[in-house]
Write a structure and sequence with these properties.
alpha/beta, seven-stranded mixed β-sheet, 13 helices, 16 strands
């Protein structure tokens, strides 16, 4: 029996069985569905993308996996070189893993050990945002702040090593003044908090965070697993405000295979580069640097530039702004739009009950969560396809919403 994610198995609706996927479409035995959420925001170029698929198949003809313990291979070397040249600043040191959650775990472990290696064992606290979501592994849950996902940790009581703040500069400054000497890292989903409710905030907050991290000697971590590859209208928010550690996943491989990277700057890497074996980063996921995933990621990065995805994301923002302009309903709390993401937040999640089935009947796959009805569609959608997604959203409120 399959144990499905984020579901009460006893009373869940039967999932739709997909028999084929091509471009932005999912196919069941009786429906053709526009995927409005890119398979949890990862399939940014659509399904069965020819260049990425070919890269995976060509690599599979040679070998599908080689461990990185004592071995190496060209796909991981070429991807590392590509990322070092492509990413901003000196984020040149790539530690690979197989999922975004694990990559965040690695980032948090790096930050703690960075100070331990320097003899600063008092820096045990992480600063994070309210409503944060960084994954479902245990350390990522501890820096998260969403009771819908992380309520299980309540059995441990309040974590003394994590401080959560709102995205307000005054709160940021107060936190650094109070905890600055204890902090090893400030971790954020920059500009757009995804699973925590598609919350959006201003770049000025991150700019001030960079200044304070420099002032207090704290590492700044950007979790761009969801926000990277154009979702905010920037290639990466790291292009605008440079972190010390950058975490990427999801769109890294165009969503074709699991892979993630934790990219650190030279300052961080230098703290581990030593004759002493105990200063090494003792971490090593079995499938880190998987050759198939590396081949897919290299093709995905090339596609990003070829398709000018940043410009496309900004165009999608213009379409969403136009299509949702002036749209109101007493059940709607707020409409938020940024880059390739558009969210209609309602007051009561019951308002969205039944929307998935409603959208299915109109040729759209959607998966509202909590009080959020949103679109984070593949970049390859035509304008007409994107407009159709927003039309279905609006029709729900006009004629059908509970």
């Amino acid at each position: 029996m399959i144990w499905y994610p984020y579901q009460q198995m006893k009373n869940m609706n039967a999932p739709y069985e997909i028999i084929r996927a091509e471009g932005p479409y999912l196919y069941t035995k009786d429906a053709k569905l526009l995927d409005s959420i890119s398979s949890w925001w990862s399939v940014i170029y659509g399904y069965h993308q020819p260049q990425i698929t070919a890269a995976i198949c060509q690599q599979a003809e040679k070998f599908s996996h080689i461990m990185l313990g004592g071995l190496t291979h060209k796909p991981v070397e070429e991807l590392s070189e590509k990322l070092a040249a492509w990413l901003p600043g000196d984020l040149d040191y790539c530690f690979f893993s197989d999922s975004g959650s694990v990559a965040v775990e690695v980032a948090l472990k790096m930050a703690l050990q960075y100070y331990v290696n320097r003899g600063e064992n008092n820096r045990c606290t992480v600063l994070a945002l309210e409503h944060a979501y960084h994954g479902d592994t245990f350390k990522t849950m501890s820096v998260g702040d969403d009771e819908d996902y992380h309520f299980i940790l309540q059995v441990y009581g309040k974590n003394p090593y994590v401080v959560h703040i709102p995205t307000e500069i005054a709160a940021l400054e107060k936190a650094f003044a109070q905890y600055g000497s204890e902090l090893n890292a400030f971790i954020v989903e920059p500009l757009l908090q995804g699973a925590g409710g598609m919350r959006m905030y201003d770049i000025a907050f991150l700019q001030r965070a960079r200044e304070l991290c420099d002032e207090y000697g704290v590492l700044l971590i950007f979790d761009e697993v969801a926000t990277g590859f154009g979702r905010t209208g920037h290639r990466f928010v790291a292009d605008v405000v440079l972190p010390d550690i950058l975490v990427l996943g999801k769109g890294l491989t165009g969503g074709h295979i699991g892979h993630a990277v934790t990219a650190a700057n030279k300052k961080v890497f230098a703290a581990f580069y030593d004759d002493a074996p105990e200063k090494a980063l003792m971490h090593g996921p079995t499938f880190m640097g998987n050759p198939l995933a590396c081949a897919a990621a290299k093709a995905s990065i090339e596609l990003y530039d070829q398709l000018d995805v940043t410009a496309r994301a900004r165009h999608m923002e213009e379409i969403a702004t136009r299509e949702l302009a002036g749209f109101t309903d007493p059940r709607i709390r707020e409409i938020r739009i940024m880059g390739g993401c558009a969210c209609i937040e309602v007051y009561d999640e019951k308002t969205l009950a039944g929307y998935q089935q409603f959208a299915y009947a109109r040729g759209v796959f959607a998966r509202p969560f909590l009080t959020c009805l949103y679109s984070m569609a593949p970049y390859i959608l035509t304008d007409e396809e994107l407009i159709h997604i927003y039309a279905v959203m609006k029709e729900w409120f006009v004629n059908y919403g509970g």
